[in-house]
Amino acid sequence: MIRAGIIGSTGYAGQELVRILLGHKDVEIKWYGSRSYIDQAYASVFQNMFQLVPDICKGEDLEQLCEEVDVVFTATPQGLCSSLVSENVLSKVKVIDLSADFRIKDVDTYEKWYGIKHQSPQFIKEAVYGLCEVNREKIKKARLIANPGCYPTCSFLSIYPLAKAGLIDMKSVIVDAKSGTSGAGRGAKVANLYCEVNESIKAYGVATHRHTPEIEEQLSYASGQEAVINFTPHLVPMNRGILVTAYANLVKDVTEEEIRKIYEDAYKEEQFVRFLNAGVCPETRWVEGSNYVDVNVKVDERTHRVIMMGAMDNLVKGAAGQAVQNMNLLFGLPETEGLLMPPVFP
Amino acid sequence: MIRAGIIGSTGYAGQELVRILLGHKDVEIKWYGSRSYIDQAYASVFQNMFQLVPDICKGEDLEQLCEEVDVVFTATPQGLCSSLVSENVLSKVKVIDLSADFRIKDVDTYEKWYGIKHQSPQFIKEAVYGLCEVNREKIKKARLIANPGCYPTCSFLSIYPLAKAGLIDMKSVIVDAKSGTSGAGRGAKVANLYCEVNESIKAYGVATHRHTPEIEEQLSYASGQEAVINFTPHLVPMNRGILVTAYANLVKDVTEEEIRKIYEDAYKEEQFVRFLNAGVCPETRWVEGSNYVDVNVKVDERTHRVIMMGAMDNLVKGAAGQAVQNMNLLFGLPETEGLLMPPVFP
Amino acid sequence: MIRAGIIGSTGYAGQELVRILLGHKDVEIKWYGSRSYIDQAYASVFQNMFQLVPDICKGEDLEQLCEEVDVVFTATPQGLCSSLVSENVLSKVKVIDLSADFRIKDVDTYEKWYGIKHQSPQFIKEAVYGLCEVNREKIKKARLIANPGCYPTCSFLSIYPLAKAGLIDMKSVIVDAKSGTSGAGRGAKVANLYCEVNESIKAYGVATHRHTPEIEEQLSYASGQEAVINFTPHLVPMNRGILVTAYANLVKDVTEEEIRKIYEDAYKEEQFVRFLNAGVCPETRWVEGSNYVDVNVKVDERTHRVIMMGAMDNLVKGAAGQAVQNMNLLFGLPETEGLLMPPVFP
Amino acid sequence: MIRAGIIGSTGYAGQELVRILLGHKDVEIKWYGSRSYIDQAYASVFQNMFQLVPDICKGEDLEQLCEEVDVVFTATPQGLCSSLVSENVLSKVKVIDLSADFRIKDVDTYEKWYGIKHQSPQFIKEAVYGLCEVNREKIKKARLIANPGCYPTCSFLSIYPLAKAGLIDMKSVIVDAKSGTSGAGRGAKVANLYCEVNESIKAYGVATHRHTPEIEEQLSYASGQEAVINFTPHLVPMNRGILVTAYANLVKDVTEEEIRKIYEDAYKEEQFVRFLNAGVCPETRWVEGSNYVDVNVKVDERTHRVIMMGAMDNLVKGAAGQAVQNMNLLFGLPETEGLLMPPVFP
């Protein structure tokens, strides 16, 4: 049994990790870390876990924790993992960080977009960006995984085949993304109250959202060119789900059939990326609760653009599910172990 | 492997059966029956099943079906199962009927409340009411299971311990129930459109809802007295979930502690009924996607009444999950097989 | 022009007062009071008022305020109005208190259920309970109005005709009520976050909710008997609306037609109470944004009970609209002035 | 009093017209036309109108209707108005068509995108596109108004100032739009059921939506160049509201301040277009139930693009409200008459 510890287990992503790991036959959760609910029963914070999780929430002492477990998940705000991680920790446990601390290779870019000083830049280089579909082999050998952001995962997987194929202008990419409200976290803020979110939609972080450089970096690797994009997230009145609608200029004449072939080839071996039939638009309801990303593409001949679409559950493939997928790779398990639950509808 | 067939697989309950059975290690679905989508790919009706279910929808020929499978689930409107079932069928397969056809022992009561003629009253007597927590032993030996209704399951399990203990006046019981909209089915009706249901709540079927005699019959068995109740269902703007708030007059002085002891004793061996801690009200969000029923009770000394509360997922414990629980009993499997998925939140 | 001041203008009820008064041809709002947003533009707190309200939020100084206006609305938490009101204030302005401070005539009952000491019990006697349909004449002559609670307004108007007619057992009344989330206020609490409320329903305050004695007191006046009731509120995933489903034992044989006649007579002169046609259940969507209460009744001959139902908008008839209705009476205006906006659907 | 008739009064837009006209002091509705509910009480179709509208639904006989009223609103599917209108009708009444029949000047474009043959192309030329902010003077003299589509209204008003100023590349415009579900109409379709729409978001009509040529035509007029755009609508789980996020390449260096000045100048006289303060993103909740469009703009210097945003209520400014605004202009009334209701929040 792999012994796991979760720092930040009482946020939405942390709780989703608990849900998934409870159904994973090779893992035992040994540590439910929480800043806000120390010494309280985990099941009193999340009543869905009543009688399923008897544990009490503990603190966030990573040095102690790494003596007791094999893998640590940090589902915490930016800056915490980088302030806790150390050579001693990494020599004892695998660390899968769900925050952005180790996602961006250029520390200046990180510090500029996030507005905080990086606490352990010495580990950035060795950290592996945990997008399994792209970095599978590197992940298997890593000690420290930077679990990708929710928007970047969905954006990247929607665009990746065409970026890699060199068919789109990497300076023309526009990503218009829409997220359910769990992405905003469980903090008590007026803006996230039911009556403020319900029956409304808005853009936020326009031209300034922190996931922009992460998407740009990964698209640049994939295309071998510098990607400069517009990324606009929106808040949608629903609990879960991210939908990406991305636009790019085609750099040469290509038919929809040719483009579909590129996507099929890119994802034919992937178990969690479902390239949909022609004409079927991804919808977040069809992936809810699962680790799948549904992707499709449409060529607009009138405008010589391509519209790339993706839908996934922000808490699963966009956070906890992808973290478990990374864990499976780190420990030599089948990549899909514990992650094959079908989407829940309605 | 148990071979299963589903008649009515393209309704909400049928699709939930598919979701649950896909995760059941001892079952293989051999037949996706549907009246509306014959010859269409199942995954084109429910895109969540894309790449998970390659099958094509077939018709509803029970005679043919029973040659190919070990168990048939009928997740169809009232009247269909009773018109299809036969001695030949029952001699070959187990039938688990999710409709109301075999739930009510008195055929006149059935015909009066449902307004249709029963097509095979000869099987009513042998059919076992599939409330596993009460009829576990009988279920194991049955050929034909009447899977309980969603409202009756939640209402009954909320009230059962006090009915059985003889502590409440069985003519004073009032059940005020609230259901998510999946309970209304997938038929295309104006009343179930998004804009008609969203941002509203209403009662319906006041004093006339068909689940009334089913609840009364089961409560009468449990208490040994004739139960005559008020049952009022309400439609709530959410996908899943049933909440029951039930009221009854206490017939003798009893403390909340004594009553809690009765519930604890009644459910201490049950894996799917969670009797909550004192003061914690059941909420549908804590059981969503799971087979759990959360139950609690409160004594109001001012009015000498007891308030009994239950929450469950209408599609799982209220339909497909309970059907699989019955199947497990019918085939000698552990009762919880395939049903231990934790509730999905948020 | 009547000059109005609002203390607590940045809560949901306060903002609804602003919306309604902006459309009232005889009123000018002179004072937007707020504890949390002093010196901020009102329209920056509620962007719907951009370009409609240029004012800046002021504090809650009732002594100063009463020099500048003719009527003060206090849309504040319990205890504030009673701590601010004085003979000086009441000699200068009319006060309409949307909190519970002056609703309950017995100060011990108030202090027991609300758990706070009453700051100005000397004004309780003269305060008039502002349920216009019942106390219309007294209201016209009052200085201090206790604007009724949201649940009590809907509960009382649903039950009132039968209570007054002496046809129901006043110790058998059970009120099962359901409210949208705006009733929980605009405070930043985890329990009211979008993801916590959405896709769920729960009871709360079971047997202990503070609106219980208010409903009992008014029903006792109406019936001339001591009413002792069960009141159970529920939180519903929608912004606005209260639905009441109330049950009572009939004390004599009476037909549905006779009971309908009693309701018709009770409400035939009322412009804001709509007694629906036989068989039509009230739904909150049909009253949203308006001052109407939709009421209906159903006799259940099987149980000798009557089911009384009401639906209204908790922020309008349950708070701000009723406050304006009271203001109209206080100042000799037509009772419906500024309140005839049709319900907004969908 | 202006006598009005509504053909298609039992759809969502038709009902919204009724709601608005009930509050319009100069209008009396004489004819509630409906195809589906002839001879039924209007208030039985929309219970919010109980006791407010005593009328019975009539048919859709435009020749008869034009004898009885001064203005006819056609809130019907594409093709109906053009099949009913005639010189006789237009000689007697003003016609405001909420469908697309007369919006597009080139009949081939109309027939290609809508897939139907135009029934009265002879009236296309004289029809005035009823976007009051642009065509105010022409509207005043018209007989036949083509009321703009919901998406085009919001898209155009978001982009118009920069299109007119010649600052954006009219072939680079991408409109990513999001709409509440009332935009899908009140027809009974599985895809619009509560459980299908709730908790999900999807794109639809990608690269093929019929509003594309309407937006292009109006942007071409405004800019004096041929606009060729990408338009992608999305379905959002909410009743009302449209949000537009539009992107375009800047054709010269310009600061955000300069661009803000252009918007301010464009809309400073407009009562229904609110240009928001810098940094404030439009949100549909802030315009719900009102005729306002909230607009804002953001320059992204990294990508040399501008992001233009707009929010409005699709049923008001996007349909019924704009129709009444047009009616006011046609009859010489103040343009805002009956349309100044503040947005309803929450």
Automatic annotation (TrEMBL), chains A, B, C, D:
<comment type="pathway">
    <text>Amino-acid biosynthesis; L-arginine biosynthesis; N(2)-acetyl-L-ornithine from L-glutamate: step 3/4.</text>
</comment>
<dbReference type="GO" id="GO:0003942">
    <property type="term" value="F:N-acetyl-gamma-glutamyl-phosphate reductase activity"/>
</dbReference>
<dbReference type="InterPro" id="IPR023013">
    <property type="entry name" value="AGPR_AS"/>
</dbReference>
<dbReference type="InterPro" id="IPR000706">
    <property type="entry name" value="AGPR_type-1"/>
</dbReference>
<comment type="function">
    <text>Catalyzes the NADPH-dependent reduction of N-acetyl-5-glutamyl phosphate to yield N-acetyl-L-glutamate 5-semialdehyde.</text>
</comment>
<feature type="domain" description="Semialdehyde dehydrogenase NAD-binding">
    <location>
        <begin position="3"/>
        <end position="142"/>
    </location>
</feature>
<keyword id="KW-0028">Amino-acid biosynthesis</keyword>
<dbReference type="InterPro" id="IPR036291">
    <property type="entry name" value="NAD(P)-bd_dom_sf"/>
</dbReference>
<dbReference type="InterPro" id="IPR050085">
    <property type="entry name" value="AGPR"/>
</dbReference>
<dbReference type="GO" id="GO:0006526">
    <property type="term" value="P:L-arginine biosynthetic process"/>
</dbReference>
<keyword id="KW-0055">Arginine biosynthesis</keyword>
<dbReference type="Pfam" id="PF01118">
    <property type="entry name" value="Semialdhyde_dh"/>
</dbReference>
<dbReference type="GO" id="GO:0005737">
    <property type="term" value="C:cytoplasm"/>
</dbReference>
<dbReference type="InterPro" id="IPR058924">
    <property type="entry name" value="AGPR_dimerisation_dom"/>
</dbReference>
<keyword id="KW-0560">Oxidoreductase</keyword>
<dbReference type="GO" id="GO:0070401">
    <property type="term" value="F:NADP+ binding"/>
</dbReference>
<dbReference type="Pfam" id="PF22698">
    <property type="entry name" value="Semialdhyde_dhC_1"/>
</dbReference>
<protein>
    <recommendedName>
        <fullName>N-acetyl-gamma-glutamyl-phosphate reductase</fullName>
        <ecNumber>1.2.1.38</ecNumber>
    </recommendedName>
</protein>
<feature type="active site">
    <location>
        <position position="150"/>
    </location>
</feature>
<keyword id="KW-0521">NADP</keyword>
<dbReference type="GO" id="GO:0051287">
    <property type="term" value="F:NAD binding"/>
</dbReference>
<comment type="similarity">
    <text>Belongs to the NAGSA dehydrogenase family. Type 1 subfamily.</text>
</comment>
<dbReference type="InterPro" id="IPR000534">
    <property type="entry name" value="Semialdehyde_DH_NAD-bd"/>
</dbReference>
<keyword id="KW-0963">Cytoplasm</keyword>
